[in-house]
Amino acid sequence: MLRPLHQLRRTRLPALVGGLLVLMAVLSFVGVAVVMLLSGRKGGLLQAFSDPVVRSVLGFTLWQALLSTLISVGLALPVASALVRQPSFPGRPWLIRLMAVPMGMPVLIGALGLIGVFGRNGLVNHVLAGVGFSQPISIYGLSGILIAHVFFNLPLATRLMLSALERVPAEYWRSAASLGFSPLSTFRFIEWPVLARVIPGAAGLIFMLCVTSFTLVLVFGGGPAATTIEVAIYQALRFDFDPARAVSLALVQITVTGCVLAVLSLLPAAADVGTTSGRGFVRFDGRHPAIRMMDVMVLLSTSLFLLLPLGQVVVSGLQADLLQLVAQPAFRHAASTSLLVALGAGLVATFGAYGIIAAHSQLSTDHSASLLARVFSMSLAGASSLVLLIPTSVLATGWFLALRLRGDVAVFAPVIVIGINALMALPFAVRVLGPAFFEHRARTGQLSESLGLSVGQRLRFIDWPVLRGPLLTALAFAMALSLGDLGAVALFGSENISTLPTLIYARMGSYRSNDADGLALILGLICLVLALIGAPQAMKKKEQNDAA
C-alpha cells in the first residue's frame, strides 16, 4: 500500500499537476477574451445576426468557403486518380512532396507568389497580352480568394484522397482489368466507394480552413464586397474603431466555427497516413494511351500550378537587393521581434503539449478512473484544440478590448501575441509529440516505476535522450507557424511590435513590391531552416518504423 502512494507522489501526481496547470492557463487565456466579448455586446446573438453588415459579411464568408471547398475537392479527384493510375510518372514522388510545401509555408509568401503569376503584371497576363488580350485579368476579389484557397487546399485534399486510394488492395485493380472495366466503371465500383469515406472529412476540414481564412482574404479581398468575418473584425478595430461591431462579428464567428466543428465531429475523419508508401501495384486501366495522356496533362498542370508561384517567390526575391534590405533598421527590428515571438510561442506550445500529453498518459493507464478523472482527461484533449472553436482573430479581439481598458495596448501586445500564437500551434505540437511520447512510455513506463525514479531523474535519464528529437521537431514546427502568422499581430501591430509578415504586408500596401518579394524570400528561408531542423528527426522516426 505504501509503494503505490510513494509512486503516486513521485511520478503520477507531478504529471497530473502539470497537466492541470496547462489546462488552467489555456482556459484562463481564452476565458478572458470570451468574457470581454460577451460583456462588450449589448444585446443577444440574434441581434448580432440582425445587423445587415454582419449578415452580408457572413454570407460572403460561407459562400467563398463553399466555392473554395467544391473547387479544391473537385480538382483533387482527377489529380489523386492520375497519381494512382500512373505510378511510373516521372517525378511522381517529388510532386507528392511538393504538395506538402503549401501546407507548411507562410500564407503571405504563397500570396506574393500568386500575385507574381496571376497579378496585373504577372506571368499569366503577359501570356494573354502576347496572344492579343488587351484587358488583363484581376486576381483581386472573389476570383483571387478562390485561386489562393485552391492553391493551399488542393494539395491537402489530394494527399488525403491519395492516401486512401493507395490502401486499396492490388487484387481489386487486377480484378477490374480481368473483367474489362472501363475507366468510368473502375471509378464507380472501386475508387468512389473508397473516396466517399474520405471526401466528407476532407471537405469539412477545408471548409473550416476557408471560413477562418484571414491573410489570403486580407491580401486578395476586393473591398467590402469581398470580406470575411475575420477580416471584418480586423477592419472594425484597426480602421473604423467600432468595438461593438467587432464584438458582434466575433460572436458570429464563434457560432459559425462551433456549428462547423459540430458537423465535422459527425463526419469520418480524413487522415494522411503516408502517401509515399511506394507499393508496386499496377493499374492496368492507366496503360491506355488516351487515359495516359489525360493523366499526364492533369499532373503537369498541377505541377505548374504549384511550382510557378513558388518559383516566382524565389526569382522575384533574388531580384531584390537583399543586402540592402537586411541592413535596414526596420528589417532588423522586425526580424528580431519575429524570432523572439516565435521562440516564445514555440517554447510555450511545446511545454504545454508535453504537460497535456504527460497528464493524459497517466490518466489513460488508470482503467478504474473516477468520473472526475475522465472529465479531466477529456478536458485536456479539448484544451489543445480550443483554438479551432475560438479562432485567433476572436481571441485577439477579446484581449484587445480587455487591454484597452488598462491604457496602452502596445505595451502588452508582445505577450498576447506570443500567447495567441502558442495556442494556435498547440494542437500541432500535440500531434507531433504525442505518438512518440506514448510509444516511449509504453516501452519504458514499467521499468521506470520499478526503479523508483523521481520525475527529475526520469526526465533526465529516460525521457530526454529519446524525446529530445520529437520535442525539437515540435518546437521547430511551432516556431515556423508563429513566424508566418499575420492574424494576431495584425490587430496589435504598431511601432513596438513589427514582425516580418507585418513588414511584408506594409511594403505591399505602399507598392514597394520589390522589397516585399525580397523579405518574403528571407522569411521563406528562415522557415525552411526550421523545417530542416525537424526533418531529420521525422526521417529517423520513419526509418525506425520501416525497420520495425
What does this structure look like?
By secondary structure, this protein is mainly α. Helix content is 79%, strand content 0%. The chain is built from 25 helices and no strands. The protein has helices spanning 2-40, 45-50, 52-85, 92-98, 101-104, 107-118, 123-130, 142-165, 170-178, 183-195, 199-211, 215-220, 229-238, 243-266, 289-319, 322-327, 329-364, 371-383, 386-389, 392-404, 409-451, 455-483, 487-492, 500-509, 513-547. Helix 3 (52-85) crosses helix 15 (289-319). It is globular. The model is unreliable at 273-280 and 542-548 (pLDDT under 50).
Q: What descriptors fit this protein?
A:
disordered C terminus, mainly alpha, 548 residues, single chain
Give helix % range: over 70%
Largest sheet features? none
Q: Secondary-structure element sequence?
A: HHHHHHHHHHHHHHHHHHHHHHHHH
Shape: globular
Mean pLDDT across residues = 82
Fraction of residues in β-strands: under 5%
Could you tell me how far the N terminus lies from the C terminus, measured between alpha carbons in angstroms? Answer: 39 Å
Number of helical regions? 25
Report the radius of gyration as a whole number of Å. Answer: 25 Å
SS-derived structural category: mainly alpha
Detail the poorly predicted runs.
273-280, 542-548
